[in-house]
Design a protein that fits this description.
194 residues, mainly beta, 8-stranded antiparallel β-barrel, elongated
């Protein structure tokens, strides 16, 4: 009887310790992004993101935070685009790019568990773009984007508040041209860990 009780207590303690090391949650927020390149207006536009995250504790100071997000980036074509690509411009100057993004962040706890710095890569897979951008349904954007993220996270009980800066490292243009298009922007989100 004592060994069964001891085994039950041991299993409960190990389970509790494992749950303290691992959390999952959901988050949503705003994207403020732009695409750099001579074809785009030099202005930030609003989009949104939503998805889920996990927190895997790696000691007292570090937490690994992988995420899966639906990200919408918005940008606006410059009037130069019409001049450069006259034969394929259709008049629509607003562009929306929808990505499935996978950030893998490393959190470093600064002030207890309240404030953390975040940094890491983000891999994006383009799942949809404005089909009116080019005639005949041609693609103007590559199917993937690679970015680096840096930011802060505030943690209050189960609530997570994030602010990040994302900078694209690869050319996302799929048009045969010397002009390089790169994304950059800010993300602000609120999450709830379970």
């Amino acid at each position: 009887m004592k060994t069964k009780l001891f085994s039950l207590v041991a299993v409960l303690l190990i389970t509790q310790a494992m749950m303290a090391q691992f959390h999952i949650g959901a988050k949503a927020g705003a994207n403020i992004t732009k695409v750099d390149g001579k074809s785009f207006k030099d202005e930030f536009r609003y989009g949104y993101h939503l998805g889920g995250f996990a927190e895997i504790r790696l000691g007292n100071k570090f937490v690994l935070q992988p995420e899966v997000l639906f990200n919408q980036y918005s940008t606006r074509l410059d009037s130069n685009y019409k001049n450069v690509y006259q034969d394929i411009f259709d008049g629509n100057s607003n562009i929306k790019l929808n990505y499935i993004s996978i950030p893998i962040l490393l959190n470093y706890k600064l002030v207890g568990s309240f404030l953390s710095l975040q940094a890491g890569p983000q891999f994006g897979i383009l799942i949809d773009q404005n089909r009116t951008l080019l005639q005949n349904g041609g693609d103007a954007f590559k199917k993937g984007d690679f970015s680096m993220l840096a930011g802060v996270q505030f943690k209050v009980a189960m609530l997570r508040i994030n602010g990040r800066y994302a900078i694209g490292l690869n050319n996302i243009s799929d048009i045969a041209d010397d002009d390089k298009w790169k994304s950059q922007g800010f993300q602000v989100s609120v999450g709830l860990a379970l």
